Amino acid sequence: MKSTPGLDCSIVIFVEEDSGDWHARRLREAIEDCGGRVVTTALKRCAFDTSFPHGIDIPGLDGKLPDGVFVRAISKGSLEEITLRLGILHALDSCGVRVWNDARVIERCVDKSTATFLFQKAGLPVPPTRIAEGRERALGYAEARYPLVLKPLFGSQGNGVRRLDEPSDMPTEDEVRGVYYLQRYLRAPDASEFSDWRVFVSANRMVGAMVRQGPNWVTNIHQGGQPQAVELDTEGRQLALAAAAAVGADYAGIDLIRDGQGRLMVLEINSNPAWKGLQSICERDIAATLAEDFLSAVRAEIPAQGA
Ligand SMILES: Nc1ncnc2c1ncn2[C@@H]1O[C@H](COP(=O)(O)OP(=O)(O)OP(=O)(O)O)[C@@H](O)[C@H]1O
Ligand SMILES: [Mg+2]
After folding, report:
1. Which fold has domain 9-101+287-306?
2. For 129-184, which CATH superfamily applies?
3. CB of 199 closer than 6 A to ligand 1?
4. Bridge pairing between strands 36-42 and 9-15
5. What is the structure's pLDDT at 3?
6. What CATH superfamily is the domain 111-124+192-271?
7. What is the mean pLDDT of the segment spanning 233-261?
8. Cα(32) to centroid of ligand 2, in Å?
9. What is the number of the ligand 1 atom nearest to the C-alpha of 267?
10. CA of 160, nearest ligand number
11. Which of 48, 49, 131, 285 lies 20 to 30 angstroms, CA to CA, from 200?
12. Domain coordinates of the chain in residue numbers?
């Protein structure tokens, strides 16, 4: 059964492993400070089970459903494992549980091609990009366009992002699992310092932003980029908010970049963004902000459930 509105509200945080990481611990404390009862577990420990009243088994809930679920991580897995985990998130949503971000949003963001399509559809500036199958066709597209950036369809933290300068750089189909995400390389040829912006959005407002700077054109913190505080201008803020809205995200990390002509573009969106780097240069308590926004959304839906 679901809990009644007010302070007593049952929350699950889905994390990488049962213990959770720094983010999950901070989030748990912040949600508890706001009056939520929290169970932290991994999606891979959940099950569909017809012997449970709702057909879903979440460890630690004795067959009950929570009021809200915060998805910190889906975790790596086989196609079957990821399908099962997303299926559980879809099922929770269909049972009236508020899922932050829900499975549809995660699917749209994890698949970089769908995210790029949705940004374009919403009228947002995106780098010229083509995502398609087949090495020969990829070579044909690349012919007059080098240098290009190639990205894994499901990549994150800058892993697997590489520059293609000539046809021999084009990886085999096995290396890219059949899909070539090709994008114009936006840096100046003689650049020696690289930067882009990471904007953190929650509940349709900006929580914080940073410039990531480094000697490497892949500026992810994970790749050695250094976070620096920045006052984002209105254009950047509006772009980030519009990108989150384009995929329907409750919270998200949006990457913005300037092309050679200085135009600001939406590069990527992450539906399960880390915020440790941003927190190190941001005064606002990000976990507390997320907890407040998330619990407001959860509590706003509880009365409707009882009706
Ligand atoms: N088209 C491009 N031109 C120049 N630099 C790029 C381009 N695309 C990506 N980069 C650099 O590589 C970094 C990683 O790229 P991107 O953000 O697309 O992938 P990711 O960080 O692995 O995925 P996600 O942001 O979804 O977690 C960017 O932050 C930027 O520094
Ligand atoms: Mg990125």
Report:
1. Rossmann fold (3.40.50)
2. ATP-grasp fold, A domain (3.30.1490.20)
3. no
4. parallel
5. 39
6. ATP-grasp fold, B domain (3.30.470.20)
7. 96
8. 30
9. 18
10. 1
11. 131
12. 9-101+287-306, 111-124+192-271, 129-184
158 — pLDDT class (breaks 50, 70, 90):
confident
Looking at per-residue confidence, does 31 or 301 come out higher? 31
Q: Which residues surround ligand 2, an ion (CB under 5 A)?
A: 255, 268
Kindly list the strands in the beta sheet with 98-100, ordered across the sheet, starting from the edge strand earlier in the chain.
36-42, 9-15, 68-71, 98-100
CA of 288 from ligand 2 middle (Å) equals: 23
Q: Is 2 in the pocket of ligand 1 (CB under 6 A)?
A: no
Q: Choose the residue to mutate in 113, 164, 184, 255 for probing ligand 1, maximizing ligand atoms within 8 Å of C-beta.
A: 255
Q: Which of 94, 98, 39, 44 is nearest to 67 (CA)?
A: 98
When mean pLDDT is compared across 4-13, 66-75, 231-240, 276-285, the lowest value belongs to 4-13
Cross-strand pairs, 202: 205, 251
Residues 6+ apart with CB under 8 A from 105: 247, 248, 249, 250, 271
**Distance in Å, CA 158 to ligand 2 centroid:** 6
Determine if ligand 1 sits within 6 Å of the CB of residue 183.
yes
Cα–Cα distances in angstroms (integers) from residue 133 to residues 83, 110, 164, 249, in the given order: 22, 18, 17, 28
> Beta-carbon neighbour count of residue 250 at 10 Å?
22
More confident residue, 6 or 82: 82
Rounded to the nearest angstrom, the distance between the alpha carbon of 126 and the centre of ligand 2 is 14
Q: What is the mean pLDDT of residues 152-169?
A: 90
If you measure from the C-alpha of residue 13 to the centroid of ligand 1, how many angstroms do you get, rounded to a whole number? 28
**Distance from C-alpha of 186 to C-alpha of 203, rounded to nearest angstrom:** 30
Measured from the CB, is residue 151 less than 6 Å from ligand 1? yes
* Residue 150, ligand 1, Cβ within 6 A: no
- Site of tokens 């213990």: 19
* Residue 120: pLDDT over 80: yes
Is 186 close to ligand 1, i.e. is its CB under 6 Å away? yes
Tell me: the pLDDT tens digits for 201-236?
999 999 999 999 988 899 888 888 888 999 899 999
| pLDDT of res. 5 | 44
